[in-house]
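User: Sequence recovery, please. Input:
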């Protein structure tokens, strides 16, 4: 009897050992599967760079070899529906940027009348086109990205808004002055570029004109406001999800 109990215990120990070994093998396999998946993911990204040239492509550059994948984005403002064509290589290609939507909302809420409007770094034209429809004005849209400007022209026609889109590095090719200048500036192009845009806008504002812009707190909005305070009287109009909406009025133009 005792001998049989010992044999049973030995068999149980053997089975338990086999079970534990199986669990170790399964965990080892799962760990290696995860490592393999991660490796394949990053390898695919790297290969996509060489195959398509669109890996981490910046929206403020012009890549002639960048492939095209047109998609459409819908937006509704006060019962009016807008559709925008977007593509690879432009800012916020897959959705309407939240910062731009927040900027739009606060401009409409606070600016009652506009006769001329400039959208700097317009991308595919979201801000300028919606504001152009709202204020019933012909809009001016500029960008350094040729693909974005091509989309802009299509989106002006698609949404039946009057306007002109042209190539300009900041305000380099801007000649006129405006009641309202808006921008969601290209932060990734660097602080110097952003400051040039905001400072140059001063010279293209009409008397009593306003510059509105959006920058995230963690992108140095307060430092940027300080650096242009010699030209503008500024007010933070809204804060949400890290985005700051700033209204800037010229100091000596009334």
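Assistant: Recovered sequence (254 residues):
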């Amino acid at each position: 009897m005792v001998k049989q109990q010992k044999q049973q215990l030995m068999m149980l120990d053997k089975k338990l050992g086999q079970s534990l070994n199986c669990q170790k093998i399964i965990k080892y396999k799962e760990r290696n599967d995860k490592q393999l998946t991660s490796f394949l993911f990053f390898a695919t990204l790297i290969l996509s760079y060489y195959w398509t040239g669109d890996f981490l492509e910046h929206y403020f550059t012009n890549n002639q070899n960048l492939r095209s994948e047109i998609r459409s984005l819908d937006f509704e403002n006060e019962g009016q529906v807008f559709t925008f064509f977007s593509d690879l290589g432009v800012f916020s290609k897959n959705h309407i940027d939240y910062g731009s939507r927040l900027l739009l909302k606060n401009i409409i809420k606070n600016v009652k009348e506009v006769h001329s409007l400039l959208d700097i770094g317009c991308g595919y034209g979201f801000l300028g086109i919606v504001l152009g429809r709202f204020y019933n004005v012909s809009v001016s849209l500029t960008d350094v990205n040729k693909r974005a400007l091509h989309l802009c022209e299509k989106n002006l026609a698609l949404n039946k808004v009057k306007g002109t889109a042209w190539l300009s590095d900041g305000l380099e090719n801007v000649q006129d002055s405006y009641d309202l200048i808006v921008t969601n500036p290209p932060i990734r192009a660097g602080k110097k570029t952003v400051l040039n845009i905001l400072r140059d806008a001063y010279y293209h504002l009409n008397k009593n004109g306003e510059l509105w812009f959006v920058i995230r707190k963690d992108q140095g909005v307060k430092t940027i406001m300080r650096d242009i305070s010699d030209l503008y009287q500024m007010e933070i109009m809204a804060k949400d999800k890290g985005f700051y909406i700033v209204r800037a009025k010229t100091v000596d133009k009334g």
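The two ends are 107 Å apart (CA to CA).
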